[in-house]
TrEMBL record:
Biased composition (Low complexity): 1-25
Start and end residues of each stretch annotated as Disordered: 1-29
Source organism per UniProt: Streptomyces albospinus
InterPro entries found in the cross-reference section: Chorismate_II_sf (IPR036263), Chorismate_mutase_highGC-bac (IPR010958), CM_dom_sf (IPR036979), CM_II_prokaryot (IPR002701)
Protein name, as recorded: Chorismate mutase
Signal peptide: none
Domain Chorismate mutase: 23-104
Length: 104
């Protein structure tokens, strides 16, 4: 019975929430998660910057008598993301376009 207890103890996660079973893995996961958090912060900042630039373009287009949305440009963006990231890239591009269109 003590071998079962020992066996269970060695397979229990070393830190809750990581799914890791060794202290080394816990450390590696923690470092990688901090890097992902940093990247996510930078991505959010870039998306916000993209939204602001898009607002300038839309404002100028409308002021010059054009439409708020330029569909052929959106198709180019969708194709670019799809070509670079595959089918999920299209979904990502759609989300970025939706965020960047602003409010009607």
């Amino acid at each position: 019975m003590s071998s079962e207890t020992t066996s269970s103890a060695t397979t229990a996660p070393a830190a809750p929430g990581t799914g890791a079973h060794t202290p080394e893995a816990v450390g590696m996961i923690g470092d990688a998660r901090r890097r992902i958090d940093d990247l996510d912060g930078r991505i959010i900042g870039l998306v916000q910057e993209r939204m602001a630039v898009s607002a300038v373009i839309q404002r100028e287009r409308i002021a010059s008598g054009g439409r708020r949305v330029h569909l052929s440009r959106e198709m180019e963006i969708l194709a670019h993301y799809r070509d670079q990231l595959g089918k999920p890239g299209t979904a990502l591009a759609m989300t970025l376009l939706e965020l960047s269109r602003g409010r009607v």
